[in-house]
Write the structure tokens for this entry.
Amino acid sequence: MSLAQPYVIETQGLSKNYKNIQALSSLNLKVSHNSIIGFLGPNGAGKTTTIKLMLGLIRPTSGTASIFGMDSVKQSVDIRSRSGYLPQEPHFYEYMTARQTLRFTAEFFFKGPRKAIEDRVDEMLELVDLTDKADRPIRTFSGGERQRLGIAQAQVNYPDLLILDEPAASLDPLGRRDVLEVMSRLRKYATVFYSTHILDDVQRVSDTVAILNKGKLVAQGPIEELLAGSEGVIYIIHLRGDIDSALKLIQSQPWVGSIKTSQHNEEYIWQVSVSDPAAAEAQLLKLLVNGPVLVTEFRRKKYELEDVFMQVVEGGQNVGK
Amino acid sequence: MSGNEAFELVTGRGWSRGLGNLSRSGLARWFKTRTWWIQCLIWGGSINLLLIAIAFSRQSSQTLYGLLLIFGIFASLFPAVGVVIIMQDALVGEKREGTAAWVLSKPVTRHSFVLSKVVSNSIGILATMILVPCTIAYAILSIYNKSPLSPLGFLGALAIIFVNHFFFLSLTMMLGSFFNARGPVIGIPLAILFLQQNLIDFLPILRFIFPWNLSIGLGTGNSLMFSLMTKAPIQPEQLTTLAIIIIESLLFLIVCLWRFNREEF
């Protein structure tokens, strides 16, 4: 894949209205190569609309979406030839078997040779654990099996961009784990853009997160940055000993913003807010360990994605880039 | 797409991207499932059993001309109902079931999606609703006549039946691109199919717009199909109707392509 384009996905002022309903409002989104981006938002936030706009299945009311540097309206076929897509509720031809469905999908991308196509189909069936059901008509498949087939057909062309709309929605925990593994493995070769409600999954595999609410992008950025929270980087330190001199020492550091202190039994708990996380990471613990205190716990305060999600969705805050 | 070096890639960029694969899949649905023999059985059975019953019953006093007229009605009117039912599923069914959205998320143009339905269903209809049942009918009519009918005239008649069916195929496709409900997509073509004679009686100019006079023509003179089978002289008006029906059918498809291109999935 050419890296001439800095971003795989770049939208500018992308909007979509349905009659009087604004499904998506001026979305500006940038997704880098070989990243796994979790696309979050409550129901009706506009996630599926964004995906459909990127693939040219619907047209924007205003704005543009550029995928691989190509316009999503004028060059949608070229975009789709390099992408794989799993719809939210995958629907396939019920009379076809899983093998026939994968072969049918593969033949949109490959003319031949026949053996290579059959090998790829077998590889995909194995990947999603459907080999033993390969020749059964899809009308006999359960929801989870359809979802697995959906994941297989989305990858049959080894796409540069894999777009998954709720990939783990109807999977059991094992199936979910497998999907996350597949996504992690693909990072080397492809960019993965996926929407989900399962925040735990996002935290496990994504490197970037975008949160959409009521059609608007309310947060976007690397997951560490979002999880650091809007308060900046904070270190939690539990210590004992001569607190006063240690406090003076730490407060005198130019990269320390504020220190909140509290006490629990004989232990003191500090929340040290820092302006330069790199300097803090290199020096803070050293300064304390070499001083007159005993450090019993030292960690960087972490937010769970759920906290961030609730904060931006319910609080209406904008976070990230 | 790294990892695809072993493949010969599909690289076409024009309007027909995906047409071959979609048409093959559509044909497989006709001929690699039970569909083909079920259709052959329905139309081969219904047309020919009725023809045999009328031709060879003891009370029958039918002339060959009468039988050819009856054949024209059976072969044009009844299968056209089947054409409408099959074709409403081609677009409306796929839109409602979500398979159209899935297919169109692949490197396929919308023109290819629509045209593959036209190609595969036209071939399926031609084979199972015209060629197979009408070949049997040709044998029955020849036996009744005690000598073979003109094969060229009969082939011409089959072509006219195809034009008749293609009119309803393209009309149903066009309606399917406008509506998401099955009701109007089935109802409008069937209303035209069964009410065209009354409409022509009411407004004679409509004889050029509806295909009634191509293959049935009851109450309005000889049909073109009947003229071909009986080697009767072909009237200029019959050819005008044929030309208009072909143009209308193509217009229906052009409108269908235009409308389907604007559809959102």
Remarks:
- Chain B is about 75% helix and 0% strand.
- Chain B touches chain A through 30 residues (CB under 8 Å).
- The radius of gyration of chain B is 20 Å.
